[in-house]
Amino acid sequence: RHLARTYFGNGINFGDRFVEVLAATQTPGETGKNWFQGTADAVRQFIWVFEDAKNRNIENVAILCGDHLYRMDYMDFIQSHIDRDADITISCAAVG
């Protein structure tokens, strides 16, 4: 809800772009006994989203942890990725 308000409630027009929030969940049964075991595991478990994006000809996907959304302006980052015709672009920040 907070992300939707931040990105859609402030008048920003994404054109054909969008933000989709995928929250960590537990499912019934044996496979649902554990939460994601980190960001990479969350990406692995949501791999179907990337297949769906590929089928809809979505060219760029940003994978972000929730706390990163408010700490970085992604406009220049994504534009740089596009300008360089990169296959993958990784952002990191010093911790501490």
UniProtKB/TrEMBL annotation:
One of this protein's GO BP terms?
glycogen biosynthetic process
Question: Is Disulfide bond set as a keyword in this record?
Answer: no
Give this protein's Gene Ontology molecular function annotations: ATP binding; glucose-1-phosphate adenylyltransferase activity
* Keywords from the UniProt entry: ATP-binding, Nucleotide-binding
Q: Where is the signal peptide?
A: none
Instruction: Tell me which Pfam families the record gives.
Output: NTP_transferase
Q: Give every Nucleotidyl transferase domain span.
A: 2-95
Keyword Nucleotide-binding applies: yes
Q: How does it assemble?
A: Heterotetramer.
Q: Which family does it belong to?
A: Belongs to the bacterial/plant glucose-1-phosphate adenylyltransferase family.
Name the chain's protein.
Putative ADP-glucose pyrophosphorylase large subunit
- What organism, scientifically named, is this protein from? Zanthoxylum ailanthoides
Q: Which gene encodes it?
A: agpL
